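Field: sequence (string)
Field: structure_tokens (string)

Example rows 1 and 2, in order.
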Amino acid sequence: MILVTGGAGFIGSNFIRDWIAQGGGPVTNLDCLTYAGNLASLADVAARPEYRFARGDIGDRAFVRQLLSDTRPRAVVNFAAESHVDRSIHSGGEFVRTNVVGTFNLLEEVRAYWSALPPAEQAAFRFLHVSTDEVYGSLDFADPPFTESHRYAPNSPYSASKAASDHLVRAAHHTYGLPVLTTNCSNNYGPYHFPEKLIPLMILHALQGKPLPVYGDGRNVRDWLYVADHCSAIRLVLEKGRVGETYNVGGRNEKSNLEVVHAICTLLDELSPRADAVPYAAQVSYVKDRPGHDRRYAIDATKLESELGWRAAEDFATGLRKTVQWYLANPAWIEGVTSGAYRQWVDQHYAQAAA
């Protein structure tokens, strides 16, 4: 048994589905089902005997303690986090509560559980913490990509809270000996992505005939990683990673936001053209840049590639095509997650940005 926290979110649900498909064994999904946690993303594995769902908060120590006692996992994979930069700017407190305090409480209970295991099980146990490249801050266009030794310089409430969680994980290892692993990934994309992030938001807005809001000049650069490739990297790090180490996971696919939006438009022109034959790119609009918007992220995944032999299977063109095709083929899932509350938040947020 492994315990996955935040398994109803975008990356977590893809990881659980991949874990089961690869024959990884039993998995318990701990998720408190906030706005981005969606059990419909796991409908195809919900009835599998290997899968169990437990609704709860990583910050609820009594609940986590009992769950660990009941399931006796050999590993914990921690995806649980508030993760949207824009939301962190409007309401940073929730990010501190979940990403900092929640991670600390989870670590404390996992440490107590691990300490009571027999020596052989202690040695085999792992706590894998999934983090982000945003903890490293922003790069100039000519700078080399982030390596694992790059200094932390978070620039948003979200990235600051994730940086704090990374430090707590590191401290749990160096102070108490908890066998931890940390992964810092670049921007993920793919199926089941909650439609507030760039790629799913642009797909949905395009299909709905809405403006495609691009922050600032659209030249902010991100390294894009297809979510299935991220899942394969996490499985490999969990199996073979060196205890106490950090592994950067990136797709080596640097694209500006504007390039991404135009690539989406081109694919939609091909796969689902507008009835009036006008290119979707006509819907692109520019809105006021968000505060503290990092200019560029880029990941150097050499350590993961050379030590563990990992390689991304998708480049940006193939991964984006699969992503657009998935959203076109799954309107029921989209309708289920785009609740009235979500639409109200998006409309309000971008109305403010356009003002």
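Row 2 begins here:
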Amino acid sequence: MTVRDRALVPHCALLAAVLIFSACAAFAQNWHPHHFGPPWDAPVASSQTFHIAGATLQVDFAPGPLDLTRAQYLAWVRRAATAVATYYGRFPVPRDRILIRPVPGADGVLSGATWGNVGGFPAFHFMRVGQHTTADQLMRDWTMTHELVHTAFPNQRSEHHWIEEGIAVYVEPVARVQAGFLAPEKIWRDMMRDMPKGNPQPGDEGLDRTHTWGRTYWGGAQFCLLADVMIREKTHNREGLVDALRGILAAGGAINRNWPLRKVFRVGDRATGTHVLERLYRRMADKPAPVDLAALWKKLGVVRNGNGVRFDNSAPEADIRIAITRTPPWGRIHPEP
């Protein structure tokens, strides 16, 4: 199927599981395995590499027509890599492969999927892009960044898919603000609009038990937003979710590893000196836990203003909102020329 909504983009973390591949690929990519086998075995018409923070990213193009140049697509991947490396302080895996498949007659970035441990690469991404995609569509795209974020978290069992997608949904726009590609007003407006999609509906259970797209993507994003705010409250804004995620990555927790979720959260909490992730997980895993988003926006100083938002910097936790999107002390990390 054609995918244009963040809430529907799949993370197909696959470690040699044929059944997972079949279901995930058929749903997420409109890919036909009988054509080439798995997507990483598809033919390659051209290939380029670039380096960022010591990592090597290989960008391959499958055969097919594209209106834009290969250089423009490479710039698109480089921007996404800049955002992810800036957020994490480095690129999450030492080697990454991105395969871009043109779709004749279409336009826009249609879908993306990510696997770990494929063909000697710790991470592999399969991106479907329309032949008539414009430069503006690439500039505004979030999908490539979303998929690269997946590389920075250990592979999870299916019942924990919400945390993989929730992190990608939440971190992607924050990382793009930190890298200078988005304005903070835009992402807080988008969160105010979209976070309610993650609220439990009648009959829903906890995040481990309800696997609708709303609960998986936006329920997971709610978990991440709450964790970010709570960690900053506990540490007087010295640490945040980003520090927990960097700690997980520093301990080896990337997409090419299979870690139990409780271990992941234990490592993340150790990095911030709190117990926020473990306690929040116990609260939200097995039973519905509605989030009072209105109260959250109020204390962060996010105020609806027509079709957008304005910021109230006198709000009790406005400093937390500002810190979440602040560029890290090391500045923006760009690919090598």
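free_text_note (row 2): The two ends are 36 Å apart (CA to CA).
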